[in-house]
Amino acid sequence: MKVLSVFNHGKKQFFNYLIPALAVLLMLPLLAIGNTASAQTFENDKRSVIQQIDRTTGRVNRPARPVKNVIVLIPDGCSLATISLARWYQWLQHPDRPALYIDPFVCGTVRTFSSNAPIGDSAPTTSCYMTGEPSRTGFVSTYPLADGEKDILWVDSTQAYQPLMTVLEASRLVHGKSTGLVFTCEFPHATPADCSAHNFDRGDYTSIASQMVHNKLDVVIGGGVSLLDDDHKAYLAEQGYTVQLDDLNGLNTFSGNKLWSLFGDRALPYDLDRDPAKEPSLEQMTSKAINVLASNPNGFFLMVEGSKVDWAAHANDPVGMITDFLAFDKACKVALDFAQRDGQTAVIIMPDHGNSGISIGTKRLSGYDKLSKEQLFGNLLKMDRTAEGLADLLNRADASQMASIVKTHTAIELTQTQQEQINMASDYRHSSLSREARRRNPNLQYTLANIMSLATGIGFTTNGHTGEEVFLAAYHPENTLPTGVRMNVEINDYLCQLLSLQDSLPVLTQRYFAPHTAVFEGLRMQVDTTASKAHPELVVKHKRKELRLKDDSSVALLNGKPVQLSSLVVYMSKNKTFYLPKALADLVK
């Protein structure tokens, strides 16, 4: 009846009804389609969205030729303005270098999002790259919970908490490739974890660290000495790894093929604060990883993360963001140079999400659009420490040296108000105020970052993540590149093409992460937490056989004797399910 009434009101009213109706129809593939559909329906929905984008934009998808080696580089939390700022900073410092190493390879942008929100953290956004499935805040390569109408792509509620096969894991299991991770954060942090672990809580370092140790990674170089416990070290030694802790010379001279090399209790310092005699640069770590991994005739998969670009963005520290991105750019050059020499390597470079709402120009600075590059950016060149590095200096020095230290390392003359702000910082060791009086205040790093950014022409809108698109750069020996605007789940499709894994990840997920109730159906099973609540064990008994499977491990005990597994055993406490290889049934039946 309503449609007939439209014609009675004339053509104008008809189009007022028709246009919104058409808009709704065009948006249908983007909306949740219900929780009763099958997993295949979701795949069709995801693909239909991608196909619709191709049709409406005229975007052409050229199949990517498979290659021997794949290197993925991620500057965590890096907004496009960060790159622009880094380019200006470098050009001011080096007039003969107006461009970044990545510049010739920029080919598009990536839309990053969580399964149920346009703004994601590192865990879900990198999970999308690694698994091709949507993910939600805090989830590490694990299928998300459905969230009704909030879901951006349809989510199958029956798959919640299912560990998802990653391209790194599949590269080893299917093609025998070597695998490696390089980063500047601690090793169980979200982005490296997304490549090699599975959890619904990115903060569960106990579980994630154990999984990464047991996941047969050939090379791990980054931060987190304090998080590698004695059991981890013993297991790695048994498996033939060289384990190096705060050993730069050892890293430089290493010539084997299985390496864990960690620096710092947690994360490495920012590149600007780094002691080159004690800590490696991201460029050095990337070069060593490629050198070690390239010895495998089957090829390799390597993920390199410039982790602390994101951390500096959270602090609104422009010099930290710039200098850590430039350190990342040098690591990109190492990868790109290798790929161009090798002729069998593809390189993909993209952030996982934006951060901080950074802008070149700010409303607090009148007439900023008429300032020269020296006026806008010149003060940044006078800063030889990040806010974190400066905070460390202030905490180690006497309070009377506060103003002189800040001036020496930033050229900023502290006002009385700024000195009072530092004194009020929650973790300033020499404050005249009690800790209780300061506990709700920003910490010293954030306080100093604010003072430093006020001396520049840079603005920020938040200390958190942001939802804008991020850049995409790539190299392929035959120039089959992912051009245009891409969704984060599409990046996984491209990686799978490069690695000859098309449509393999869902099959591998079912094969290697099957629910224990299905694998051992009909057998006696018991969950044992007496030995370790952090790592419960599944005990399976049949006839005269007893199989013990420990959470976050790749070692089983069959009648008390160790058996090496090809992949991980993962326990999800939310649904009280162990996920493990289907082939384990053959050990007890």
Name the overall outline: globular
Mean pLDDT over the full residue set: 92
Oligomer: single chain
Largest sheet: 10 strands, mixed
Termini separation (Å)? 65 Å
Low-confidence stretches: 1-44
Number of helices: 23
Task: Give the strand order of the largest sheet, numbering strands 1, 2, ... along the chain.
Answer: 5-6-4-3-7-1-8-13-2-14
Range of strand content: 15-25%
Tell how many strands the DSSP assignment holds: 21
Please bin the fraction of helical residues: 25-40%
Give the radius of gyration: 26 Å
Helix and strand content put the structural class at: alpha/beta
Chain-wise SSE layout:
Elements lengths: L1 H7 L1 H18 L11 H19 L11 E7 L4 H14 L12 E6 L10 H10 L35 H9 L2 E9 L3 H7 L8 H10 L4 E5 L6 H9 L3 E4 L2 H6 L5 E5 L18 H12 L6 E7 L1 H8 L2 H25 L2 E5 L4 E2 L3 E2 L12 H9 L5 H10 L5 H9 L5 H8 L11 H4 L5 H10 L4 E2 L5 E2 L3 E6 L8 E4 H11 L6 H8 L1 E2 H4 L4 E5 L8 E6 L2 E6 L2 E6 L2 E12 L4 E4 L4 H4 L1
Parallel strand pairs: 1-7, 1-8, 2-14, 3-4, 3-7, 4-6, 5-6
Antiparallel strand pairs: 2-13, 8-13, 9-12, 10-11, 15-21, 16-17, 17-18, 18-19, 19-20, 20-21
Characterise the protein shown here.
- The protein has 23 helices and 21 strands.
- The strands form four sheets. A ten-stranded mixed sheet has the order 5-6-4-3-7-1-8-13-2-14, with helices on both faces. A seven-stranded antiparallel sheet has the order 15-21-20-19-18-17-16.
- It has 589 residues and is α/β, with parallel strands linked by helices.
- Among the domains are: 219-285, no CATH class; 365-458; 512-588, Copper amine oxidase-like, N-terminal domain (Copper Amine Oxidase, Chain A, domain 1).
- 47% of the residues are buried.
- Residues 1-44 have low confidence and may be disordered.
